[in-house]
Amino acid sequence: MSKRLKELHEEITQRLRGVVESPRREAELLLMGFLEKDILYFITHQEDMIDDNDPKLIEWIERRSANVPLEYLTNRVSFYSETFYIDEGALIPRPETEHLIDEIVARISSKEAITIVEVGVGSGIISIMLARHLPNARFIAVDISPKALAVARRNIELFNLTNRIELREGDLLSCVDEPIDLLVSNPPYIANDVSLESNLSYEPQNALFGGEIGDEIIRRLLDEVYARQIPMFVCEMGFDQRTKVQEYLKSFSVQSLEFYKDLASLDRGFILKI
Ligand SMILES: C[S@@+](CC[C@H](N)C(=O)[O-])C[C@H]1O[C@@H](n2cnc3c(N)ncnc32)[C@H](O)[C@@H]1O
């Protein structure tokens, strides 16, 4: 059976009521994703007949009604004005991570031929965007999750960066012996006992939870920075982890430690030089 686009929009909106925050908008996004059309098309084709028995559409509506993030249905995610492949093997990139890239690009000249290591590459967005901004840098990108590495590999191929970003599977820096000029990470930093909104349950839990307190992986990375004398470390963190980072670094010698904020003016990360 077929239905007018506007009727289908209304029907999906009703299905999503009580599940997602903005059901009308979410229904619109789902339909645009399904039809592979933009908002202009959506507004101007409200009378178009759509096959509402399409198995893919039925599946998407069912999974979205169970609060599966739309990005995992469409296998597409926007980050830094680019479109990346995504699936349930990797964390959905968050807009606040764009700040981490800006902070690095503001400090490193595009001429520098340095080795940058990313820990926790996930979908690959950080290393890929940095590689595009810093054409002379070489990248080693690590993740403990083979599923995340498969997503990163796909995106690295999509952006033609296989010759510049080397992927490795391992725990933090265990698989990296080379000297590192810059370490970058958006590690898992949520405390294990924090209960999260239901849509987050579809994301890889080892991408979200950082330990009992939350900052355990950040502290392990700080230990690595000093053990290997990595001159610069740029790291995303939770909005409430600034004091913990400062406290932890009290026993180390620090050349400079700067914190940066996200658009909501919350502490979101730091740049450490040793
Ligand atoms: C918050 S996600 C970040 C993903 C991506 N870089 C981004 O910013 O969207 C953290 C990533 O760290 C990885 N991870 C967790 N523990 C790790 C460990 N001990 N060693 C290496 N990677 C780890 C997870 O698999 C996940 O892909």
CATH topology label of the largest domain: Rossmann fold
Largest sheet composition: 7 strands, mixed
Q: Work out the oligomeric state of the chains in this entry.
A: single chain
Mean pLDDT: 96
Order of helices and strands: EHHHEHHEEHEHEHEEEEHEHEE
Bound molecule kinds, no repeats = S-adenosylmethionine
Count every helix, treating DSSP H or I runs of 4 or more residues as helices. 10
| Strand coverage percent | 15-25%
Q: What is the CATH superfamily label of the largest domain? A: Vaccinia Virus protein VP39
Number of domains: 2
Secondary-structure-based class equals alpha/beta
Identify the CATH architecture of the largest domain: 3-Layer(aba) Sandwich
Report the CATH C-level class of the largest domain. Answer: Alpha Beta
Strand order of the largest sheet: 7-6-5-8-11-13-12
Task: Report the uncertain regions.
Answer: none
